[in-house]
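Worked example 3 (structure in, sequence out).
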């Protein structure tokens, strides 16, 4: 089981948990008395760049929006396509304690670092190729289009 809270490391080098999460975080820890645990602090990296975001919505989402319209006959917004991509390419698996079954839950892309976002973009390009047979060009890559 994972217990997570957001925080920051202050100017004195001390970990400060966000006030709105602190009480719930400490309550969850207190419910795990006499249990072994491992503590891990993950320091946030640089957030995705404006260039990455522009490429994502302009190229990746734009191409897939056209694919969906061509293949499915459905007109979707870029936000709708973004939701599909999160579900297919940026999910976390959750398991039921009762049945052992799992579901995939889409995760936000807003907090991804530049490296994590590039990994997400690669999964999106792979999804486009495998599902629609479409190659999405890499950033700054030119493609030839026959008209």
């Amino acid at each position: 089981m994972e217990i997570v809270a957001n925080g920051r490391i202050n100017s004195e080098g001390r970990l400060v948990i966000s006030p709105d999460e602190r009480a719930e975080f400490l309550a969850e820890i207190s419910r795990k008395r006499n249990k072994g645990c491992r503590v891990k602090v993950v320091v946030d990296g640089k957030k995705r760049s404006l260039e990455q975001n522009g490429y994502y919505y302009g190229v990746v989402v734009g191409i897939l929006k056209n694919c969906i319209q061509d293949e499915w006959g459905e007109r979707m917004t870029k936000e709708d396509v973004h939701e599909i991509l999160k579900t297919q390419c940026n999910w976390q698996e959750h398991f039921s304690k009762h049945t052992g079954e799992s579901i995939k839950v889409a995760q936000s892309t807003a907090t991804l670092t530049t490296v994590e976002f590039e990994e997400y973009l690669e999964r999106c390009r792979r999804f486009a190729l495998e599902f629609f047979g479409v190659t999405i060009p890499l950033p700054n890559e030119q493609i030839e289009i026959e008209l």
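Notes: The first strand starts at residue 7 and ends at 9. Residues 50-132 form one domain.
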